[in-house]
Amino acid sequence: MRLCVIPARGGSKRIPRKNIRSFCGRPMIAWSICAARESGLFDQVVVSTDDPGIAAVSREWGADVPFARPPELADDHVGTAPVVVHAIDWYVEAGEMPGEVCCLYATAPFVRGADLVAAHAALRESGACFVFTATTFPFPILRSLTVDAHGELGPMFPEHIGKRSQDLPEAFHDAGQFYFGDARHWRDNVPMFGPRSRMFLLPRHRVQDIDTEEDWRRAEWLFRAMQEAGE
């Protein structure tokens, strides 16, 4: 079986209840659930949560919530991988061994079903352990500036500060939208950001962390602008 796991704990502090707060007409998590379902890739779209309210909304939008996430996997310090492995292990104990598993974040309204389909194809074609979303930095990071404890400004990489942008290598970062890989690689704790992974590049305007109220407003503006532009 091919599994989509959407982690969505209930203890968000900077934006309370952000996983089920209304975002452009739907609960935030509904956008991820719908993208997963629209892709047609998954036998199960599962929300891993410790929160009954999130579970109820997720079910309303078509996701399965077959287990409650244990408290030790629901605090601020738990990473994503243990939550995904917990979901995989739950299915294994229930007698179903997942094959490919996609971890799709609950706050990823810019992800489309077509992205998941394309990333899955890239996973199959590349033979990589994981395919994850990434994007480019808008400015050469090797020309970054820094300020020391005395307030004095300086280049972070002095050997590159005088170089032209076009002469410096392009740099990328994790877009934090979804991560696709085989269940055994999740369970074996294969490093996500290593030579056995491949990036699925997204344009920068479709990548937005949503951790603060300012992030939220910017994401809504971008989302509406894309809708009006027919993107």
What are the SSEs and their pairings?
Elements: E1 3-7, E2 22-23, E3 26-27, H1 28-39, E4 44-48, H2 52-60, H3 80-93, E5 100-104, H4 113-126, E6 130-136, E7 145-147, E8 153-155, E9 172-182, H5 183-187, E10 197-201, H6 213-228
Parallel strand pairs: 1-4, 1-5, 6-10
Antiparallel strand pairs: 2-3, 5-9, 6-9, 7-8
Helix pairs in contact: 1-4
Organism: Niveibacterium umoris
InterPro entries: CMP-NeuNAc_synthase (IPR050793), Cytidylyl_trans (IPR003329), Nucleotide-diphossugar_trans (IPR029044), PseF (IPR020039)
Keywords: Nucleotidyltransferase, Transferase
List its traits.
6 helices, six-stranded mixed sheet, 231 residues, Spore Coat Polysaccharide Biosynthesis Protein SpsA, Chain A, alpha/beta, 10 strands, single chain, two-stranded antiparallel sheet
Structure description:
The protein is α/β, with parallel strands linked by helices. It has one domain: Spore Coat Polysaccharide Biosynthesis Protein SpsA, Chain A (Alpha-Beta Complex). It is 30% helix and 21% strand. The chain contains six helices and ten strands; from the N terminus they run E-E-E-H-E-H-H-E-H-E-E-E-E-H-E-H. The protein has helices at residues 28-39, 52-60, 80-93, 113-126, 183-187, 213-228, and strands spanning 3-7, 22-23, 26-27, 44-48, 100-104, 130-136, 145-147, 153-155, 172-182, 197-201. It has a six-stranded mixed sheet with strand order 4-1-5-9-6-10, with helices on both faces. Strands 2-3 form a two-stranded antiparallel sheet. Strand 2 (22-23) and strand 3 (26-27) form a beta hairpin. Helix 1 (28-39) crosses helix 4. The radius of gyration is 19 Å and the shape is globular. The two termini are 32 Å apart. InterPro entries: CMP-NeuNAc_synthase (IPR050793), Cytidylyl_trans (IPR003329), Nucleotide-diphossugar_trans (IPR029044), PseF (IPR020039). Keywords: Nucleotidyltransferase, Transferase. It is an enzyme of class 2 (transferase).
